[in-house]
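sanity check this fold:
=====
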Amino acid sequence: MACRIEILSKISDTRAKVKKTKIQNLIRGQKIKDLSLVDVYAIDKNFEKKQLTEISLMLANPVTQIANFKQALSPKKFNWVIEIGFLPGVTDNVATTAKEMIEDLLKSKFSGGENIYTSQITFITGKLSKQDVQKIANSLYNPVIQRAKIKNYQEFKKDKGMGTDIPKVKLNLLKKVDEVNLNITDEELVKIGKLGILNKDGTRRGPLALDLKYIKTISNYFKKKGRNPTDIELESIAQTWSEHCKHTIFADPIDDIKKGLYETFIKASTEKIRKKKSHDFCVSVFTDNSGAIEFDEKYLITDKVETHNSPSALDPFGGAITGIVGVNRDAIGFGMGAKPIINHYGFCFAYPDDKSPLYKGPSFTQKMLTPRRIIDGIIEGVNSGGNCSGIPTPQGFMVFDKRYKGKPLVFVGTAGLIPKKINGIKSYIKKARPGDYIVMVGGRVGQDGIHGATFSSEVMDSGSPATAVQIGDPITQKKLSDAVVKEARDLNLYNSITDNGAGGLSCSVAEMAKESGGCFVKLDDVPLKYPGLSPWQIWISESQERMTVAVPRIKWKKFYSLMKRRGVETTIIGKFNKSRSCVVEYKGEKIMDVDIKFLHDGLPKRPMITTYTPPHYDEPSFSLPKDLNKTVQQMLKRLNITGFEFLSKQYDHEVQGGSILKPLQGKGRINAEATITQPLLTSKKGVVLSQGIYPSYSDIDTYHMAACAIDTAIRNAVAAGANIDYLALLDNFCWCSSNDLEKLGQLKRAAKACYDYSIAFETPFISGKDSMFNDFKGYDEKDNPVKISIPPTLLISSIGVVDDILKVISIDVKFSGDLIYILGETSDELGGSEYYSMYQYIGNRVPKVNSSKNKRLYKDFYQCVTKNLISSAISVGHGGLGVALAKTAMAGMLGIDIDLKKLPGKTSRDDLALFSESQGRIIVSINHKNKEQFEKIMNKNSFAKIGTVTEKQKIIINGKKGNKIIDLDLNIALKSYKSTFKDF
């Protein structure tokens, strides 16, 4: 019989205080007198009273909490109560941990049908209407993954609590395989591709993301085999061929580019750079879960950045935590297994104060979450995934634009560390061999994550499935990661390893089968979270915390024993072979038999054509502001410039002990654009991470948008002390309406810029990812159809190795009397800038990158770094010179006295000089004793001494005519900079 253990705090509960504040802000005008919480563990297993007492004592802190399993707990006074828990089948990480604790405590295992389910009860004291309480409940739970129950005081007392609900999965699915008839009309084939296989009751199973050409190719393949495909075969091919997995838009011919954008622009540029470099530090590029460069003579550094956009729009927390733990597995799945050492992130959000609703369905159905709920959930998801995994998360950014309302963008990255050789064998080479066992390690399989790959390859609309959402479990994955990377790898217990990510087993097993030549899988042996799953669901589910490993037969017992001791579930589900086929069996019946070559390479080419029409906008027409002090304060408050200390503080960047340049720098704790981490505490070398992103520039020209992103990603790292000759790049394209000819034309221009500027800077790409259909189709608050497309967005990430962590450079000015220089030229380039946006303009003069000038400047700057000539340096980016000067001063909490008369370049007005976003610029401060040597090294570049650091805590800037245009107290500036997110 199921029971509930309820836990109530005896003293003040910080969680309750935070929740009370949020709820009070939601229902302004109504007074909440008190709010308290009760944590609930519903246990679906028979325990004796003595055992339940022991469990209660373990789950609760006896000093601060009361636990009871005999009756419901509640405060003495309250008016309303809301209980929120997960829906059946949704991953419950707290419950998983509690279950393991109980098993350890009582030395007794839960059987297959027994489990624990958590929920939380919120007691509210205040005169609120039922409508008010429903509004509160709606703000606390996400109906996609959670359930909510509301009672008033009288109902709670009458029922003696909230009841014992057990959200157990009850599936009545027929566990059989269906044949799919593809000998039907083109119209019906299109429906299968878009909506999924037709069930007997007339419902559809969810998107396959197969267009007519693809599905006809599949039909012809099976006609030659003399049969129709089974449902599992069609689902498996759909996962493998999805845009998410195969990146078909980058792979297919486009206009006269026969080899596609990836081969022609991304891969080709890297190959050209590697041939040209005297020292090729790239080791593994574009072939594995991550890219890798040399760290030193013994180790490699890996890096990968993923996107998790679509799931995060439905369930922000689940989408984000799954994204970060998923990209952690890209490190673990690199070569023979790299240790995840640094996380990084990037979020593109709609405006947090936008409260106008969106609906996926007509007549106000399938309401989307508000931008603020999405922001909070995504931030919390990456927090939980990174912090619980013990991986530092120092580097990241946030970008805001109203067009991210339909789909936020969630970039998550992980850098890893791996020895070059393990037991004398190159660590980055792996190969499953015929006869190796196919072994699944980690979590079990459920319905979560079904159609994740195909769902992410389409526009989000009313057909977007809730089953596409997964919730990652970092604790389970941490055990898996440690057991693999710290032990099994170095004992040489397996031949190959990869992540169970998009497409689940269908993709991971089939990918590794390319190495051996074929595979056989016995699907009955795959461990499940609950009974009732159909074979096709087991095969394509993206349930988290799983890796697929190729284990030699003679090493199986040792591998299994190790994993069992470490608490990692491990199961043989088949064998790799050289049959040249992927064969799956279920209940003694062969349900899948597809040629490996067709599965991976059978998709037809779909030539694309593009158009491109350069846009033109009205040029801004506003006069020079009379009070530039106020203008600077307004700029420092802007969402894309302001400080996000609230986020940086909650992401643990100190764990593993290697944080050198931190996310918040100087006495003023200002967000920096680059961080440096020391991965080996016995080495002076460090890893630098940064990025560049300018989606607003896409409104004018995606070519220059991409060029600026590349230049900024490089410059941010260089300003922190990195050597441009030892920097590599990663590309993440997030596009919209990718079947639109104009959008494809913009994509081609951006990819061409990646080729041109990576070659110009000699910075190779080592990894990348694209997400093509970031559009929302639904309905607005008036039930009118709407389509919201993100601005074409390209994130360029940079990673490099710093030789000496003692010579890295932070952004804060440090000593009164230091000289301030501007390196690089400033022009009236404000198209797409933050300054123009503040006045509701776009403009046309987008910043353009002079790669030859900038490259020389960055190389000369690095000479100054090696000679210890630089006190501080800050890259000039969003908001221009005015913002960068304010940030370097606020970071050091020292004054600056600036004169713009000698500013290199041509600018027409003081405000345009201050807020132009011209590329290639760095502000530096140096000791006056270093003046001669510094200027000698920089003499072939455009630069000028423009001011000094002062003890007065003021930002003083004199204009081009010598008049004082800014006289701003540092504390006032800092207050503006930190005001925007002060209540987050």
